[in-house]
Write a structure and sequence with these properties.
The protein is α+β, with helices and mostly antiparallel strands. Helices cover 36% and strands 31% of the residues.
Length: 141
């Protein structure tokens, strides 16, 4: 059972294509309010799309939670995607371009990792997967 959203975060339940679009738009708007460039906005939206698509495809449902963050002189956004799906048997291999256990091109996870400034993934077989991503947008906080 998930905890209620904090007042400073946006939480989008993911279970279909419409939810992916909602999460993508919310992430783009949050990144814009954090001062991200137009390029950053596109990268954030694309990374969210890739991770949310994996939730729908492999887990069926999950959550994407986003919030603005500040660290030292950096300002940006944090995106946390979680699901309670089957998990990923070999995370290192899943992060290789072209590797897939489904019908896709195997570019989702490695693509999202390249688009974001920080990317961490943890997965437990039979328990689910968690992806934490950051995009640092400004250094003038």
């Amino acid at each position: 059972m998930s905890s209620p959203p904090r007042s400073d975060e946006i939480r989008v339940a993911i279970s279909n294509d419409a939810d992916i679009i909602t999460a993508r738009q919310a992430g783009r708007e949050l990144a814009a309010s954090a001062g991200c460039s137009t390029t950053d906005l596109t990268e954030v939206a694309t990374a969210i799309s890739e991770i949310a698509r994996n939730i729908v495809t492999y887990a069926g449902h999950g959550t994407v939670t986003m919030r603005q963050v500040e660290h030292s002189s950096r300002c940006g956004i944090e995106i946390v995607a979680t699901d309670d799906g089957p998990g990923i048997a070999d995370v290192d291999r899943a992060l290789e371009d072209g590797f897939t256990t489904g019908v896709g091109l195997g570019l989702g996870l490695p693509g999202a990792r390249r688009l974001m400034d920080d990317f961490r993934i943890s997965s437990d077989l039979g328990r689910g997967t968690k992806v934490v991503m950051h995009k640092w947008c400004r250094t003038d906080v």
